[in-house]
Amino acid sequence: MDDSQIHGSIERLVAEEHELWQRESDGTATDRDRDRLQQVKVSLDQAWDLLRQRRALREAGRNADAADVRPADVVEGYQQ
Asked: 33-70 b/e with 16+ CB inside 10 Å = b?
């Protein structure tokens, strides 16, 4: 997956996240919606992490395609 594909995935996830937050705000969210929202948040964190990895690899003169999606427990454990 290249950077533009990752960005496209991020855009789709953000749109879905906004829709799910809107349902929550409207009071119409289901438990399934809330579960999906958590999944979307993790997927977004993974996608942003993948882009950062790819950039770091390029800046180090290495192949950006060597970057891998890290597990949820890894990206969710990062300090902000």
From this structure: eeebbeebebbbbbbebbbebbeeeeeeeeebeebeeb
The answer to whether 13 touches 47, Cβ cutoff 8 Å, is: yes
Backbone phi and psi for residue 78, each to the nearest 5 degrees, phi listed first: -70, 145
Dihedral of alpha carbons 8, 2, 33, 80, sign: negative
For the entire predicted model, the pTM comes to 0.90
| DSSP element (H, E) containing 43 | helix 31-59
Tokens representing residue 15 in the block: 């749109």
Task: Please tell me the predicted confidence (pLDDT) of residue 53.
Answer: 96
Q: Kindly report the backbone phi and psi dihedral angles of residue 64, in degrees, each rounded to the nearest multiple of 5, phi listed first.
A: -60, -25
